[in-house]
Amino acid sequence: MAIITTDWTGTEYFPITDLAYVEFYTGNAKQVVHFYRTAFGFTPYAYAGPETGVFDKVSYVLKQNKIYFVFTTPLKSDHYASQWLKKHGDGVRDIAFHSEDAVFAYESCLSRDAESAYEPTRSGDDLGNYMKAGIKTYGDTIHSFVETKNYKGIWAPGFVELDMPEVNFDDPGLLLIDHIVGNVEEGKMNEWRDYYERVFGFTNFVVFDENDISTKYSSLKSRVMRSKNWKVKFPINEPASGLKKSQIEEYLDFNEGPGVQHIALLTDDIIKTITALRNNGVEFLFVPDSYYGELPSRVGQIQEDLNKIQDLGILVDRDEEGYLLQLFSKPVEDRPTLFFEIIQRKGSRGFGQGNFQALFESIEIEQEKRGNL
Ligand code: FE2
After folding, report:
1. Tell me, what CATH number does 225's domain have?
2. How many Å lie between the centroid of ligand 1 and the Cα of residue 181?
3. Which one of 28, 213, 313, 349 has the fewest CB atoms closer than 10 angstroms to its CB?
4. Does residue 71 sit within a domain?
5. Would the pTM count as exceeding 0.90?
6. 207 falls in which pLDDT band (50, 70, 90)?
């Protein structure tokens, strides 16, 4: 059963206010930035590279409302990001938190057996001081704590405003990161649930098991962890056994280990958002027509026009608190690893449990095409 408990049962060892940014390692940030601008509607924000005195990598920061994505490409084969990319391909390296006191957050996590990714690092220029520290999580993914209260610059020392030629795109109006999902190996999900409970003091508020989500071929298990203020929600998936290879196993094979499976981006007008993203060329999972036949009986009355919902291929799910609308992109790299979810919440704080079945069936159609089912 999927269980949603709304009571806070965790322990807030240090305040988790919000995510600061997500950093991607990528083989060619210059071109990737073009994709996230014209397809996903991000705008240029900040840049660091040789022109700003940073010689071993380039980083582009893109912004859309409260979402900040950083795309980093190493410029040398001996840079750590080069090894990371060789193993995983393009993907998410760092899920970073805003922090009032980065050293305290880091030391607090280490005192509960988190592993250091890098020690507290202070950098500064004439605009002030910037402090960062990082701990490891699943796979080769890390969490940075970023303290900017004494820094007045646009992003961090070494960064300048990113100025790029204008491009045309439809504005999807994406607002913020709703949740970020990690895939871990079979049998490891509960260890990572324990990690987020122990290290961050998060609470486990949703549980899915094989009985909730399964097809003839594959199924998944998931535990959703959240911060006290609900701003941070991290589902952790592991594969469950099925007749053929599950989508989680396919991810683990192609990513060569655990990592971020999808980032869910929140909108307050999913019809506008999906229309814009489709116009911009973003590819979404195919939703079979049969899904819409049984939709009214499954979710009841919704405010949106059902014809538009079907034309745009949007999924709908309902729970005790309300409903949500969502849709999943195809993987955004050649390896079938990272993808995006677009989500609008109308009262529901769930994750679309009722849609996972429909989703699985359509993912399997895609897996079959790649010969991995
Ligand atoms: Fe999701």
Report:
1. 3.10.180.10
2. 7
3. 28
4. yes
5. yes
6. confident
